[in-house]
Design a protein that fits this description.
Largest sheet: 7 strands, mixed
Oligomer: single chain
Helix content: 10-25%
Structural class: alpha/beta
Number of strands: 10
Strand content: 15-25%
Radius of gyration: 17 Å
Shape: globular
Order of helices and strands: EHEEEEHEHEEEHE
Length: 246
């Protein structure tokens, strides 16, 4: 795992073909209006739409953290990963992804499931329920509800009020009015250059949206999977199994 403010993560060969579709959809839905920004492209956010020449516009967002992770490494439903940050922004994850097609969870969701959603191209808005009031929660939820490849959930005890995640990208914020929220969403939601599995679905019929696997605030314990693992055996840590990721 490598940290960098300018690192671009794993790319798939089909990314170039997908970006034209993704970019066109963003412009079609957002550039024709001067309405309040809500995570879709507007004239003010055009520079954050990914293109073949600017594959990771999120690099220009102040405060962004970018990290490389090997994709497709799975753990079981009872294993935990010793993620170095909460919320995590990539790494080994549960083989079942959390539904991320515009879902606003009212309770914390198991991080290993949420990380798999990031691998599919989702943007995850996490918030500390003790630091974000009802009005600001509503403002965040408006960016998520019924919007594809977007998901939101609380994480009690989180160090910042708000934290945004996509695969290998994280931005921690103090305010729901911060313009960087929409920059992040436009730059990274379904970005085929930064998403390990562009085109993978966010629908998850087998995932319980009303009673999801809960977020566990306790330490991961001595049997946790090493988040730095690339699938090779590491002493004292279980080895995650490779999988298709879908």
């Amino acid at each position: 795992m490598r940290n960098s403010n300018t690192t671009i993560g794993t790319r798939h060969a089909r990314a170039a073909a997908a970006v034209g579709i993704a970019g066109a959809a963003l412009f079609a839905t957002g550039c024709s209006t001067g309405d309040k920004v809500d995570g879709t492209a507007t004239a003010a956010l055009d520079s954050f739409v990914p293109t073949a020449d600017n594959q990771d516009p999120a690099r220009e967002i102040p405060g962004i953290v970018i990290t490389e992770f090997p994709p497709g490494l799975h753990v079981t439903s009872t294993q935990r990963v010793a993620y170095p940050t909460i919320p995590p922004l990539g790494g080994p994850h549960d083989s079942r992804w959390a539904a991320c097609d515009g879902v606003v969870y009212d309770k914390g969701v198991r991080t290993e499931n949420m990380v798999h959603s990031l691998e599919h191209g989702a943007v995850w808005i996490a918030y500390n329920p003790d630091k974000v009031n009802a009005e600001d929660r509503a403002a965040l939820a408006a960016r998520v509800k019924d919007r594809p490849y977007t998901v939101m959930s609380p994480i009690p005890g989180m160090d910042h009020p708000i934290s945004l995640q996509s695969w290998g990208h994280q931005l921690k914020l103090d305010s729901a009015d911060d313009p960087r929220i929409d920059q992040f969403i436009v730059a990274l939601r379904e970005n085929p250059y930064t998403t390990p599995e562009p085109g993978a679905t966010c629908s998850a019929p087998l995932f319980d949206r009303t009673n999801p696997p809960p977020f566990d605030p306790t330490g991961p314990g001595p049997g946790a999977v090493d988040p730095n693992s690339d699938g090779a055996a590491i002493p004292d840590f279980p080895t995650p199994s490779p999988g298709s990721g879908r």
